[in-house]
Structures are given as C-alpha cells and as structure tokens.
Design brief:
alpha+beta; globular; 5 helices; seven-stranded antiparallel β-sheet; 34% helix; Jelly Rolls
Length: 261
C-alpha cells in the first residue's frame, strides 16, 4: 500500500475546507471532527486491492490488475468501430476537438446514440463472459491524442475507483486507431514481473484495474483514438466511492478543459 500524489492533494484540500467551514460556523469539537475526516481519507488513500485477487498467469485480468490482448475483435466488429468513431470524423481535419469525448452512462440518461449503445453492450457482454462474472458499465468515453494538447497521463498513476473498496473496477481500452508511436508502461507489484513497456497497436484490448495497476502512457507523435469503457462488478458506492466518484467527475472535466485544442 502506498499513496498516490493526486489523492493526497485532494484529501488535503478536502480536510482544509472542512476545517475552515467548521471554524467559520463556530461548531464545537471541530478539531475532533476534522481528525475523524483525516482518518477516513487516509483509509481512502491506502485502500488498494491486495495481491491474491487473481492469477498471475493465464488470466483474463492478472493479479497486477492488467490484461492485454492483440487482435481482440473480429475484423467486422473492428471495422464497425473504426467506421463509427474514426471515418466519420477524419474529413473534418482534427478527429475530435479535445482529449475526451463522453459517450454516456447507462445510469444517467443512456448513451449519445443507438450505435454507441449497441457497441458498448457488445463489449460489456464479451468482457463479462471472459471475466466469468457479470460486469456493469460505469461510463464510456473516447480519448484522442494528436500532439496538440497536454497529455495528463504521461506520469505513473493509479486509476481511481468510483465505487466501494470491495468492488472490482476495470478500465477497458480498445485501441481503434493508432499512428502514434506511443508506449504504455506499468509496474508489476504482485506478479514480480518488473516494469513492462510496449508500443500500442490497433485492435488491441488493454485492461487496467482501478487502484491496483500503476501505469502511464507516453505519447510520442501522430494520432491515437481509444474507446474507453469502465466496467464494475457492482454499483455499490459506499463512502469510498462517493468521495472519489465525485472527485473524478470534477477531475475529468478539469483535464478535459486543460486538454482542449
């Protein structure tokens, strides 16, 4: 278990704001209440899935919280993805106007169109079958790189979970267009495989377990488009999920603003 800098910063800001609010309202025992909040947030920062959740070899999602598969989709499905999200936008110049394009959330109004809903449901069903457990969609978005904006993911980090600490959250990344010469790197913390780096390729699936896999993406040049679908084993939020789900909602919109072209 160890801290992630971003989480520590957010926790510190939350504690400071709560302390100032309690002091302004002249609520008694504000030191005690703030101390309790600090302990809760320390637990949040240290809540990482332990080793032993999954197998290290031959598993869909290994015990590092990582999975990677080449030529994942049949050719007709892969062409459908490219037709839907690449070909329709290519003649317009820049494929997308910013780093992140949200596609929808099944719990908050659904998806932006019928084709997107069908594609994401296909993905969810296939991944649930491979994982051997029903998975549910948290939300889906497109992530686009073309060198014209800041890449906020080039340093090592953990993806934050939006749900309770016993919920498995898997970020699935489908590389549907890649002329980037970019590399993905992760550190093996459970399977003792050291640090792994590889070039990203089209029609590949990468799986990242939230709060478990320490990773980064180094963008070099060119264009890359990834369809990201966050899947969870349960919709149970709990205190942990409510705190970090709210923060990630804010962070997603901050980084989207910072990475607009």
């Amino acid at each position: 278990m160890h801290f992630e800098v971003r989480n520590v910063v957010v926790s510190s800001i939350i504690v400071l704001l709560v302390f100032l609010i309690l002091k302004t309202l002249q609520i008694k025992n504000n030191f005690l209440l703030t101390t309790i909040l600090v302990l809760v947030l320390l637990h949040v920062n240290l809540s990482q899935p332990a080793c032993g959740q999954h197998m290290c070899n031959g598993a869909f999602l290994n015990d590092d919280g990582f999975g990677y598969y080449k030529n994942y989709f049949p050719e007709d499905v892969f062409k459908l993805l490219q037709s839907e999200y690449v070909n329709k936008n290519t003649p317009k110049g820049k494929m997308y106007p910013n780093n992140t394009t949200f596609l929808g959330n099944p719990k908050r109004g659904g998806y932006i169109d019928t084709n997107t809903e069908k594609i994401i449901e296909y993905i969810r069903n296939r991944l649930s079958e491979s994982y051997g457990q029903t998975l549910y969609v948290d939300y889906a978005f497109l992530r686009y790189y073309n060198g014209s904006s800041l890449n906020p993911f080039e340093n090592f980090h953990y993806d934050s979970s939006h749900y309770d600490s016993d919920v498995v959250q898997i970020r699935s990344l489908f590389n549907i267009y890649d002329k980037s010469d970019g590399t993905f790197t992760y550190e093996s913390e459970c399977c003792n495989n050291g640090t792994k780096t590889f070039y990203t390729e089209e029609n590949t699936l990468a799986l990242i377990q939230a709060n478990k896999l320490r990773h980064k993406y180094n963008y070099i040049k060119g264009e890359r488009l990834v369809l990201v679908v966050d899947l969870v084993s349960s919709y149970k939020r709990g205190i942990y999920g409510n705190v970090w789900g709210t923060w990630d909602y804010i962070w997603d919109r901050i980084q989207k603003s910072l990475t607009s072209f």
